[in-house]
Write a structure and sequence with these properties.
- With 176 residues, the chain is α+β, with helices and mostly antiparallel strands.
- The protein has three helices and seven strands; from the N terminus they run ββββαβββαα.
- It has two domains: 8-86, no CATH class; 127-175, no CATH class.
- A hairpin with a 7-residue loop joins β2 (16-17) and β3.
- The chain starts with 7 loop residues before the first strand and ends with a helix.
Length: 176
């Protein structure tokens, strides 16, 4: 029984655009069993880059014969280029590289109980405001008016004195 040892390669860099193979990208790999050996270049298509990047991140090996193959170009007129390339099926199960975020259709499955009734005003209208809050807003406006008047009439008063006089005047006015 003969066993053939498959060669494994670990991706060691991000893919770059290839100058020698138009339409392809390339990246370097290292044989984990021979760390001092020469780096190997493997070419891939743009739609396979995400798969390569995932291998770089996880350090999963690329296996010759399963993921990559050597192509020899004996006929110069042929479109086939020589070198080591990822196989055609690699990368088709992963997400393709896009220029922006994925576009998704909004769900049209609305539930009737989630939709506001036409009679209900939007929550931002605040029709049923707390009467205490309305009264407090009125008080704040009156105190601000008295303080502004004190600033104009008595510029020599410091801030603390103006505030004390305004609050005292407001309290006295509301006792009546």
């Amino acid at each position: 029984m003969s066993t053939t040892k498959t060669k494994e390669h670990i991706v060691i860099c991000h893919p770059k655009v290839s100058r020698f193979h138009p339409g392809y990208w390339y990246f370097y790999t290292k044989d984990p069993n021979h760390p001092s050996g020469k780096d190997k270049t493997i070419s891939c298509r743009e739609d396979q880059i995400d798969w390569v990047e995932e291998r770089l991140r996880t350090q999963e090996p690329i296996i010759e014969g399963e993921h990559a193959e050597f192509r020899a170009n004996h006929n110069r007129d042929d479109d086939v280029q020589s070198g080591t390339f990822l196989m055609e099926h690699i990368g088709h199960t992963t997400r393709r590289r896009t220029s922006g975020p994925a576009k998704r259709m909004a769900s049209t499955d609305f539930k009737a109980d989630d939709m506001p009734l036409d009679e209900e005003p939007p929550a931002t209208w605040n029709i049923n405001r707390d009467p205490g809050l309305i009264k407090a807003e009125g008080f704040a406006r009156e105190i601000a008016y008295v303080t502004e008047m004190l600033i104009e009439e008595y510029p020599s008063l410091d801030q603390e004195s103006r505030r004390t006089i305004a609050i005292t005047a407001f309290i006295q006015a509301n006792k009546m």
